[in-house]
Amino acid sequence: MKKKKLQFSSGLYTGTGKLTMGEKVTQKLLELLKDLFEDIAIEEMKHAEKIAERLFYLGGTPTTKPTPIIVGGSLEEMIKSNLKAENEAIELYTEIIKLADTEGDSTTRLMFEEIMTNEEEHKHTFTILLK
Ligand SMILES: [Fe+2]
Q: Which CATH number is associated with domain 2-129?
């Protein structure tokens, strides 16, 4: 874990053995953002696991094919990409919540309402980062 952080921030190393104050601040911000992205990714994996378990319980077969992964770009592009994914998830989960309610499946409805709360938090986080 420590090694990863060093690799992530190695682009800021001046080679003189000392970082300027600006470089230190930038390095700290990048480390915080890395941790934030990592925490959100872990939450998304937990969502996927819950959804797969519920789908299996309901008699479905969870897919093993991930959607295409968008890689790279600037930090701003990554945040915009994540914000777009959060908006798409919120839209999809809103439809699922309505359908579950129509079908009288309160367990699925409640599960997606809980997941949606996290997605809205993620959306808020990415929205704030773009300001
Ligand atoms: Fe999310």
A: 1.20.1260.10
